[in-house]
Model the fold of this input.
Amino acid sequence: MIKAVKGTRDLLPPSTEVWNKVEAVAREVFRTYNYHEIRTPILEETQLFARGVGADTDIVTKEMYTFTDRDETSVTLRPENTASVIRAYIEHRLDQRPGVQKLYYMGPMFRRERPQKGRYRQFFQIGAEAIGSESPVVDAEVIEMVMEVLERAGLGGAKLLINSVGDHNCRPQYVEKLREELKDAAPQMCGDCQRRAETNPLRVLDCKVEADQPIIEKLPTIIDYLCDPCRAHFEAVKQYLGDRGIEYEVRPRMVRGLDYYMRTTFEVVHGALGAQNSVLGGGRYDGLAESLGSKVHSPGIGFSIGEDRLVMSVEGEQRATPLDLCVAPLGEAAVRHGAVMARDFRRAGVSVELVEGKLKRVMELANKLGARFTLIIGDNEMAAGRYALKDMTTGDQQSLTRDEIAARLAAARS
RNA sequence: GUGGGCGUAGCUCAGCUUGGUAGAGCGCCGGAUUGUGGUUCCGGUGGCCGAGGGUUCGAAUCCCUCCGCCCACCCCA
Done:
């Protein structure tokens, strides 16, 4: 028995209706902010992620699906999409196009982690990138937009967390300071933290071990060490969010896992997601283009929604997709007659299922399919040009002409 | 990579402690006479009990190994 590979899954109806709805909502919101879709390959040269995401990150060191192609180049199934979008931006000289480039995407990403609730090896992201501006106005607009998507997708009770992680100017100084403090503090902390103090000091900040919290609270935060330009940027972002009435919480200890982030970072969390409670993450990446070899400075900011997680927290009771009409032809001649009628109704936008068989069986099936109406076509009906249309909710049945039926169906759909 | 929980019918699960070669509900299919669904009643389909090995006269049940799924750590979407 062949099964879906570990960490991947089949999305079946009616759940796929929810996915489509979420995607449709996102596209509609993106449209109103003048974002346009970009589709990049799922397969990229491994170098792209090593340089873009960061050679020392968990993603690159142990989570990528990498293999050697037949021409000996190393290729990787994309673990995220920002690096690809920037690659495409550089490759196609989108910096030469007028204005800020506002791009969105949706599709599968791959990371070889141990699966658990809300975490899959193939997962789907809906994301957007605004490239070509350093303005905090853009930061606020991007955040506003993604919050709009969440709200219109039906997600309630989500919490927006923001932070600034500084830039190449102030962050190294902060990390240095943190390292210093940790020399004294780390020995009293959990084993993981002692290890992290060496490898990645920033990670100590979001340790969840209860006993470590008092110590962590005394450690300096990046916010206190921001250089003036970074501080001004962060203050502006907060002000613009305030102008829009967007509620947020500053989390000075929030750390992001990708190296390219600088200045603004943000995240939205939601309960009922299990331990993986983050629905989306994003931030500014002003140096990413350069680290991918671009000669033009291309500052940008973007986010990525975990679509699996969004669907999970939005998904309520799923009712089967409604069917407008079930056609029940009685006999061979009626099947031919009914098939033509079905085509005409479909052309008018009505969803139609044509079912052969004994009337009783067809009626039972129509009921199970949730058909709004059933159209019975027998010899009498064909001779008279009037057909029996049964309203499955009320049980009423009327003898109507084609045009009358079309009108009834149209009326019921509106 | 490391823990913990769980694998019995399409689905949700009982049976396992105290071994005697499988059950319920739902679903699916059919019937309750002619071209009418939902409710009810009757009948039926359906399982190498995750896989392999061991103990035993006999294993879904006890023991070992493996595999799979889930949850958590880690990390992140």
User: Anything to note?
Assistant: The two ends of chain A are 46 Å apart (CA to CA). The longest strand of chain A covers residues 101-110. Chain A has a mean pLDDT of 92. Residues 323-413 of chain A form a domain with the Rossmann fold fold (CATH 3.40.50.800).
